[in-house]
Amino acid sequence: MSAHGRDNNHKPSFRFNKKLHLPIILLAILSASLWAVGSFAAGIAAAEDEKNRALTITPTPGPSPTIVFTPTPTPTIEPTPSPTITGDSTPIGNPGNIPNVITNGSRNRLEIALTFDDGPHPQYTPQVLQILKRYNIKATFFCLGQMIQENPDLVRQEHQAGHVVASHSWSHPDLTTLSMDQLQKELKNTSDLIYNTIGERPTLVRPPYGSYNNNVVQVANSLSEKIIIWDVDTNDWQRKGVDSIVNTAFQEAGKGSIILMHDAGGERSQTIAALPRIIEGLKARGYSFVTVPELLSHMG
């Protein structure tokens, strides 16, 4: 080997220099150690993360619950129906010797009382009032409490025009089928309402269907009401035609008659059409028309 550090074969000669290479070796070892530690830590973190992912349960979201609100229905208030007369109006009972049960007036006078049941009705009662006014006639109206409650102004019109307002019960039941308490309410409540409407209590009552018994008579008497039936039923409630209504009145009416007609309780156009003909026909025979109280006042 030459003085320049080459051997005779011109190959480079490597000589280990401790002072020069020791730091390099230490740095390499440290780097390798740090890399190994970092790789190990990264591996542990990755493994831990994988473990956590494996242990974490992610719930599958289900559909949101649907809340259905069921609205409370608005109550339907049904109005109270107007009473409809469908049965026979033939009087039940024998008024013969029963005090305060009256079917007619004096048989010695050419007087007739026109009476109208079941009102007042907003369509038919005003037409009846117009006809009576045209002929200057006063009549007697047997009114239902239910109908008075619905049409108080018509009752006031009847009263102010000089007609007589009387009771026909509250709701048109067969009074003979009621208990004493029910009977009392039917007649007393109607009497009270008439008083509150026109300032006078009724002195007359007509039991629906002309049906009465001793209990009906007793309660009517306690209210100072005479029971008024009839002796001429035009059967206008059957609606057999205007001619039938008129002819029945002509055939059956006589001195002191109480004629039964209706201004409510059903379709009453035939009654409205028949009324002028009845008035004119009976007037032509010499009859005059009075209220029931006037008729009774002439019986003495």
Structure description:
With 300 residues, this protein is α/β, with parallel strands linked by helices. It has a domain at 101-297: Glycoside hydrolase/deacetylase (TIM Barrel). The chain has 9 helices and 9 strands. It has helices at 18-55, 124-134, 145-150, 152-160, 180-198, 214-222, 242-252, 269-284, 292-297, and strands at residues 101-102, 111-117, 140-143, 164-167, 204-205, 226-228, 232-233, 257-262, 288-290. Strands 2, 3, 4, 7, 8 and 9 form a 6-stranded parallel β-sheet that branches. The longest helix is centred in the first third of the chain and has 38 residues, at 18-55. Mean pLDDT is 79; it is low at 1-25 and 32-94.
- Radius of gyration from the alpha-carbon trace, in angstroms: 54 Å
Uncertain regions spanning at least 5 consecutive residues: 1-25, 32-94
Give the number of DSSP strands: 9
CATH topology of the domain at 101-297: TIM Barrel
Query: Hey, roughly how much beta strand do the residues contain?
Result: 5-15%
Helix content: 40-55%
Structural class: alpha/beta
Main β-sheet: number of strands, strand sense, barrel status?
A: 6 strands, parallel
Under CATH, the homologous superfamily of the domain at 101-297 reads: Glycoside hydrolase/deacetylase
CATH class of the domain at 101-297: Alpha Beta
For the termini, the CA-CA separation is 182 Å
Order of helices and strands: HEEHEHHEHEHEEHEHEH
How would you summarize what this structure contains?
By secondary structure, the chain is α/β, with parallel strands linked by helices.
